[in-house]
Amino acid sequence: MDKLIPATVQDGSARAQITDKKADVLLENALSALANGTRRGIVQSFPIKGADGKPSSVAHLLPVRGSAHDLFSRMNSILVVMPLPGPGAPPVKVLQALFDLTPSEARIASALADGRTIDAIGMDFGIARETVRSHLRSIFAKSGVSKQSSLVRLLLGVTLPRPGS
Questions:
Q1: Is pLDDT above 70 for 69?
Q2: Residue 151 in contact with residue 109, Cβ under 8 Å?
Q3: What is the pLDDT of residues 97-125, one digit of tens each?
Q4: How confident is the model at residue 60 (pLDDT cuts 50, 70, 90)?
Q5: Mean pLDDT value across the chain
Q6: What is the sign, positive or negative, of the torsion defined by CA atoms of 30, 32, 35, 39?
Q7: Which run of H or E residues covers position 10?
Q8: List of residues 6+ apart from 54 with CB closer than 8 A
């Protein structure tokens, strides 16, 4: 986290604040939903843009549940920020972990990043076009974007560190 302060995350009066205003609004909404019980127990993830306007990190808001309250008695969640090291779409399993996608959502997201159309994905996976679109709406909600082109840009900006880095 030290490398992210103050460029990406800052200490606010009531909570950590994200310098990307859109990401900070998503964080505020996620914290409010946790506090009022509407999203209790659900991990929420969203992209954070860097100074250049491109995705630079992914934030994960992890709810504190069950016996974890023994250690974190005054917390309802933990914020984890994962920097994105560079271009290129990661494997499906990594997409699942980064954005809390289901296996089907991650496969669809990966296929979109590979340049496949919704119709082609439906045909390749043996599912209806509307099923693909339904998964896509869920992917948008989990990734914090609202357009297919924005999702592809986000996914192509995610890479894995090289061994030894």
A1: no
A2: yes
A3: 888 999 999 999 999 988 889 999 999 99
A4: confident
A5: 83
A6: negative
A7: strand 9-11
A8: 153, 157
| Distance of alpha carbon 128 from alpha carbon 15, whole angstroms | 43
In whole angstroms, give the CA distance from residue 28 to residue 15.
Answer: 9
pLDDT over 50 at 164, yes or no = no
| Residue 34 in this model has a pLDDT that exceeds 90 | no
Contact 31, 15 (CB under 8 A): yes
* Cα 117 to Cα 113, 133, 154, distances in angstroms: 10, 11, 17
Task: Check: CB of residue 48 under 8 Å from CB of residue 57.
Answer: yes
Between CA 47 and CA 57 the distance in angstroms is 6
The length of the chain, given as a count of residues: 165
Predicted TM-score of the model (pTM): 0.52
Burial of residue 134 (CB within 10 Å: 0-12, 13-18, 19+) is: middle
Q: Which helix (H) or strand (E) holds 162?
A: none
Number of C-beta neighbours around residue 41 at 10 A: 10
Neighbours of 145 (CB within 10 A): 20
How far is Cα 49 from Cα 53, in angstroms, rounded to an integer?
Answer: 5
